[in-house]
Amino acid sequence: MRLVGTEAVALWVRSGSPGATAAWHPKPEDTDGALPLGALVDLDENSGVAHVQSGIALGRLERFVRSRGLSLGPLSADLCRTTVYDALAVGSTIRPSPRFGDLRSTVLAVTGVLHDGRVVRTEVAPRRATGSDLGRFLLGCGHRFGYLTEVYLRLSPLANHLFPVTVTGGPPSALLGVYSQLEDLGVRAATMTVGGSRDPSMHLTFVHEAERDLGAEVSRAAGVEATVGISLGTDRCSVDRPIAEALVPKPMIDAVLSRLKNGRVVGHVADRWIVFFEAAEGDAAVREPAWAASTEASDFSQLEAQLEVILGGR
Amino acid sequence: MPTPRFDPRAFVEGLRADVGESNVSTTRPDREAYSRDLWPRSLLDSLSGPAPGPMAVVWPTDEVRVSAVVRRCASAGVPIVPFGAGSGVCGGALADPSGIVVDLKRLDRVLKVDPEARTVEVQAGINGELFERRLERQGFTLGHFPSSIVCSTVGGWLATRSAGQCSARYGKIEDMVLDLSVVTGDGVLRRTERTGSPGLDWNQLFVGSEGTLGLITGATLALHPQPETRCFRGYLCRSVEDGLDLIRRVLQDGHRPAVLRLYDPLDTMMARQKAAPGGETSAHAGPLKALLQGLSSPEGMGARALRAALSVPQVTNALIASLPRKSLLVTVTEGSAREATLTDEAIARVAKDLQAQDLGEGPGRHWLAHRHDVSYKQSRLYRAGAFVDTFEVATTWARLPRLYEAVRGALGLHTVVMAHFSHAYAAGCSIYFTFVGTGRDVPEMRARYLAAWQAALDAALLCEATLAHHHGVGLSRATHLQKAHGPAVAYFQALKRVLDPQGILNPGKIYGAAV
Ligand SMILES: Cc1cc2nc3c(=O)[nH]c(=O)nc-3n(C[C@H](O)[C@H](O)[C@H](O)COP(=O)(O)OP(=O)(O)OC[C@H]3O[C@@H](n4cnc5c(N)ncnc54)[C@H](O)[C@@H]3O)c2cc1C
């Protein structure tokens, strides 16, 4: 079945969708390049906002907006086939950019179809302004409450170059200390990765050459090695292997990375580093350490299950 | 089985047992003081007599007591209106005579500042100014400076999606939240997951919910180091459009100035007159001069002149439209010396490109010194027989000019309108309209006030803009928000059923009677 718009999805749902048991979500199709719900609906170049259907592949969208001098921010080549739906509704792991944010943070508005067929639209706004952020609540829910069908994404001006620097010669926490110092100076890298035991180095890229040079200067002042480059750094966050993510309290980072062969830090949310790791490996390494239990968050799963029932998902 | 009759006395006694004798009041002065917030419409209503207050006012001193109060209310079906400092301007804290007000101001402790992690755990009732001073002493800032900082609380900020004057750099309050402690309508104290965790984002559900989904009792917020340097500047742009273009280009280039504040021609005239009384702007004659004088000192002759100018809003607005189109842009950049200077220079480059006149540091410094002045003149205007209110909306850059014209036109049929642009982002901007009106008597003033609101909301709805930017919804926009959000209201209703099964939390706020 090929559904071509929010209204079609709503009709399909109303006329007896398989509900939450359906494994349906927009997917790119190989055969003729045509994608269900895969259109770029509108591009507002002045505001830097793309209105897309959720089945559009990130790579296809990026290619198009690049031709207009805009960009979603740095994406690894591997992500090209990931759809906006996969990235936002299902929650595929997408590497965040300190400068441009992660894909979730670029969402300005969403349209979704609830399991009872009702179409939910949030206002297109530079920031959420009124009431609870219901759109945000459709992100990351998979299709438990409904289907995400359209999204407005904030774009950034396309950076013509990314200037890389590689920093080595210290434990991850020391390298990340350099990174934090740069942030205090107001310098935000376009991309950052700090590897674990397999690759004990920090790779940063910057939009401005002067920022790269400052990155090198601050590193050397902190007593670690810095090598500036003229080509782009490589992105080792492959999605061929299933990648998982965790938020690690900053003081625990050396301990956690030493247990993860392929773990790497890709950004932070305030006091927690965002770490990507291979899911199979991480299961053992990430669940076990003391920090995993340090969160005091309540269990919301029961509330989420109730909500699912009310909204007709099951 | 018949439901037992509700006994208010026994209920209040129960509250006293829950939180302590001295933390509950049913006295008339207390109930009157907690009958409303600073919604101008209730201010107008209060000219005809005091509003009915709540059944009781309760001041819990910790989270456990908040839970106990909510449980008691849930089992008796008694509505709760959460209360921060009552500085809200939308009626969000308007009391329900059949319910109680829960004032969270006694939950006022800073629990932990983590200098390494740069986070703060704070209770929700703390006063904004005191909180920021505490942080300042430790070398940090939250970066959140609403004009009402001296009379609002952290919980109120979170509940209304507040924006501070430095939002271009630090974001709105929702950008600062890492996790929340919330007592939901079933009386359970819950703590949300850290922002950024996989799965559903409960933080962004409670933020902005204006007490309808839970009472926020505490939060972990992200901190920033105190800025090392500040650079101040002012530019006279050729027009509002030029000024907006300047702001857009600076932000889309990835710069993060602390303040980018653009005034429309009337606001520019007022701002410049305040900065240099007797200067070129005061040469304007007729109703405009009367309006400016009346707005700055609305007493005696000033009051009469003001009312005269406001009684013919369309004429006055037409005169305003004939003012020189120049618009004042005030900028403040801050951070490390390097960043503040680079950002200041980047703004200067775009300004030069757009032929904006550099006015030096003066306007920026003047703004900083006087940034809270205007807001507190409200009651003087009411005494002068006028009303004043504000309406802040937001949209993307491409839709902004249409929104500006539409709302301005709508408000201008009933009131005299000015505007400034003080919260901008890479993708768009908010517009802050101030409108002032009058009437021959209170009923006529009220009718004009309501007509102005209705027209402005209709216009914003038509332009598909947000119906607020940082003041929240309360009751002032509830009916229109229902129209704007359409079926999303059902989604909210479902959430409300889960989090507040008895429907006792701030009923009628945000989406009106529908929820
Ligand atoms: C002069 C003036 C200037 C202003 N300037 C700004 C400005 O620059 N930026 C801005 O954003 N706003 C501004 N405001 C509006 C107002 O100050 C904000 O809305 C503020 O966030 C309200 O905080 P409060 O503590 O006073 O909340 P209240 O007014 O007491 O409550 C506001 C709403 O939040 C709910 N609430 C309060 N505390 C809690 C809690 N702990 N848990 C759950 N719900 C709660 C209430 O029920 C109500 O619905 C201004 C107001 C005035 C009067």
CATH topology group of the largest domain in chain B: Vanillyl-alcohol Oxidase, Chain A, domain 3
Helical proportion of chain B? 25-40%
Secondary structure tally, helices of chain A: 9
> Which CATH architecture of the largest domain in chain B?
3-Layer(aba) Sandwich
Low-confidence stretches of chain B: none
Mean pLDDT of chain B: 92
* Count of distinct structural domains of chain A: 2
- Percentage beta strand of chain A: 15-25%
Structural class based on helices, strands and sheet pairing of chain A: alpha+beta
**CATH architectural arrangement of the largest domain in chain A:** 2-Layer Sandwich
At the fourth level of CATH, the homologous superfamily of the largest domain in chain B is: FAD-linked oxidase, cap domain/gating helix
Number of helices of chain B: 20
For the CA atoms, what is the radius of gyration of chain A? 21 Å
Question: What is the C-alpha radius of gyration of chain B, as a whole number of Å?
Answer: 23 Å
Distance between the termini of chain B: 28 Å
Largest sheet of chain A: 7 strands, antiparallel
Number of strands of chain B: 18
- What ions, cofactors and ligands are bound? flavin-adenine dinucleotide
Total tally of structural domains of chain B: 4
The greatest interface between two protein chains, and residues involved on each side, is:
A-B, 62 and 87 residues
| CATH fold call of the largest domain in chain A | Uridine Diphospho-n-acetylenolpyruvylglucosamine Reductase, domain 3
Describe this structure in words.
The complex is a heterodimer of chains A (314) and B (515). Chain A is an alpha+beta fold. Chain A has two domains: 6-157, 2-Layer Sandwich (Uridine Diphospho-n-acetylenolpyruvylglucosamine Reductase, domain 3), CATH 3.30.465; 161-294. Chain A contains nine helices and 14 strands. Chain A has a seven-stranded antiparallel β-sheet. In chain A, strands 1-2-6-4-5 form a five-stranded antiparallel β-sheet, sandwiched between helices. The two termini of chain A are 22 Å apart. Chain B is of the alpha+beta class. Chain B has four domains: 8-103, Uridine Diphospho-n-acetylenolpyruvylglucosamine Reductase, domain 2 (2-Layer Sandwich); 110-225, Uridine Diphospho-n-acetylenolpyruvylglucosamine Reductase, domain 3; 229-462, FAD-linked oxidase, cap domain/gating helix (Vanillyl-alcohol Oxidase, Chain A, domain 3), CATH 3.40.462; 477-515. Chain B is 40% helix and 20% strand. The chains are: A alpha+beta (314), B alpha+beta (515). The interface between A and B is large, with 62 and 87 residues. Flavin-adenine dinucleotide is lined by residues 37-38, 81-89, 92-93, 104, 124, 146-148, 152-153, 155-157, 159-160, 162-163, 210-211, 215-216, 375, 470-472, 474, 506, 509 of chain B.
